[in-house]
């Protein structure tokens, strides 16, 4: 067994309501939200399998969500019937592909309540979207002495791009503190704001802890100080509706694969005046209006930022994912996820030596924990042998793990298709792992 870093973070009391401890046979009685989880599960083919001789329990949704049949069929239908490049083809296939591709962009705009679809840029995911803003807006606007604020709970994708542009421009990256419960310190954030803060880049939800940040308040405070705000919405987008106009954010990003869509496609929403003023991120086809050896003029939004052949199938698949989510009762789905988390946290408190990491009052359905004397990766391996998929490690949040003095955690993240029986199996497998490792 590998050595364990001593634990330094004690757990505060659980604030969510306690749920009765029941056996797997009775867990259906807990679903009082009116959400038909079994009907939803039937839409996801990958869940209908066994792993290592056990029915699959997929609890790695913060890393990527599974795909409903509607998304798989939409991608397959494109390749079977419409496969062509978009926008410039003089034939029927290109016309059909273009129509579906741009309809998906409009679906994203409607989903985010954006004013116009030209504010929706296709990217490869949240990571590229943040890099685009850091490189294009940051490279054109930041200078020595400027400050960029990021929180201590950020994913590496919302840290490293700002460090790169800060090194090039002489700006400074500064850290908004997070307390031991995993709650961002808004008072400290407010005190950090001054006229030198040009950008605040924070996640809507922590991927490592599930903490929900008060982004509306933070945006208001940042704007009062004259700063722009980028919100990393990768972990929020699947859990509740997002209205970028109501938030009043300057940029909002998310990845399709976190929203039951395909990998390799993502979205950057931006204020139109900001996007218009920003220089292109990459050069090549599609992002140009005219090219000559004496100079080039750039295309209009959104194409100015979409060099090269895009992920057409990915955009169409994301559009289908949004259609799928829109057909759900999202309030009931959120209540179902909250009930799963409450049930899991109640069971976690009963496990000897288990400590929850991240106990903020406002959380999505993410349960991160460590087991005293056991390395997280050992737990993950034994879980997999029992058909249970969890994530272990630092979750691309090494500065946060350093604050907790941990090599990483075990993270179980729940989604709309998870059940109370999944939670029971998680903790039955954990008990078996304890018996083997301790």
Report on the structure:
- With about 450 residues, the chain is of the alpha/beta class.
- The chain folds into 2 domains: about 25-60 and about 330-435, Aspartate Aminotransferase, domain 1 (Alpha-Beta Complex), CATH 3.90.1150.10; about 70-325, Aspartate Aminotransferase, domain 2.
- Helix content is about 35%, strand content about 15%.
- It is built from 14 helices and 17 strands.
- The chain has helices spanning about 35-40, 70-80, 90-110, 125-140, 160-170, 185-190, 215-225, 245, 270-275, 310-325, 330-350, 375-385, 400-405, 420-435; strands at about 50, 55, 55-60, 120-125, 145-150, 170-175, 195-205, 230, 250-255, 265-270, 290, 295-300, 355, 365-370, 390, 390-395, 410-415.
- The strands form 5 sheets. It has a 7-stranded mixed beta sheet with strand order 4-10-9-8-7-5-6, with helices on both faces. It has a 4-stranded antiparallel beta sheet with strand order 13-14-17-16, covered by helices on one side.
- Helix 7 links the parallel strand 7 (about 195-205) and strand 8.
- Helix 4 runs parallel beside helix 5 and helix 11 packs parallel to helix 14 (about 420-435).
- The chain is globular.
- Its cofactor is pyridoxal 5'-phosphate.
- Keywords: Pyridoxal phosphate, Transferase.
- It catalyses: (sulfur carrier)-H + L-cysteine = (sulfur carrier)-SH + L-alanine.
């Amino acid at each position: 067994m590998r050595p364990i870093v001593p634990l330094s973070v004690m757990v505060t009391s659980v604030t969510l309501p306690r749920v009765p401890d029941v056996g797997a046979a009775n867990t259906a009685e807990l679903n009082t939200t009116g959400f038909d989880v079994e009907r939803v599960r039937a839409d996801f083919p990958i869940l209908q399998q066994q792993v290592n001789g056990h029915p699959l329990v997929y609890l790695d949704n913060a890393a990527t969500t599974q795909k409903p049949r509607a998304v798989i069929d939409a991608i397959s239908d494109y390749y079977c019937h419409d496969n062509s490049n978009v926008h410039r083809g003089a034939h029927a296939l290109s016309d059909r592909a273009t129509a579906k591709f741009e309809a998906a962009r409009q679906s994203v705009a409607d989903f985010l309540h954006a004013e116009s679809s030209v504010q929706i840029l296709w990217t490869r995911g949240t990571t590229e979207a943040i890099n685009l803003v850091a490189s294009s807006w940051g490279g054109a606007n930041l200078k020595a002495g400027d400050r960029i604020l990021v929180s201590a709970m950020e994913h590496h994708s919302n840290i490293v791009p700002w460090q790169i542009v800060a090194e090039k421009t002489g700006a400074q990256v500064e850290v908004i503190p997070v307390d031991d419960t995993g709650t961002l310190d808004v008072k400290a954030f407010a005190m950090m704001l001054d006229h030198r803060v040009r950008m605040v880049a924070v996640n809507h939800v922590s991927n490592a802890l599930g903490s929900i940040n008060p982004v509306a308040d933070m945006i208001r405070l940042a704007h009062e100080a004259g700063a722009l705000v980028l919100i990393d919405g990768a972990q929020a987008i699947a859990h509740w509706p997002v209205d970028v106009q109501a938030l009043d954010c300057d940029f909002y990003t998310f990845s399709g694969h976190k929203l039951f869509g395909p990998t390799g496609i993502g979205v950057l929403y931006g204020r139109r005046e900001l996007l218009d003023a920003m220089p292109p991120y990459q050069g090549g086809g599609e992002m140009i209006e005219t090219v000559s050896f004496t100079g080039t003029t750039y295309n209009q939004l959104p194409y100015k930022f979409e060099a090269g052949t895009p992920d057409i199938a990915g955009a169409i698949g994301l559009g289908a994912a949004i259609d799928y989510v829109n057909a759900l009762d999202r309030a009931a789905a959120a209540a179902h996820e909250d009930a799963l988390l409450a049930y899991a946290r109640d069971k976690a408190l009963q496990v000897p030596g288990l400590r929850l990491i991240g106990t903020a009052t406002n959380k999505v359905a993410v349960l991160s924990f460590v087991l005293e004397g056991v390395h997280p990766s050992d737990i993950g391996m034994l879980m997999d042998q029992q058909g249970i998929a969890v994530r272990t490690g630092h979750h691309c949040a090494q500065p946060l793990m350093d604050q907790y003095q941990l090599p990483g955690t075990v993270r179980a993240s729940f989604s709309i298709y998870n059940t109370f029986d999944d939670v029971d199996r998680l903790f039955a497998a954990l008990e078996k792992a304890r018996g083997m490792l301790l």
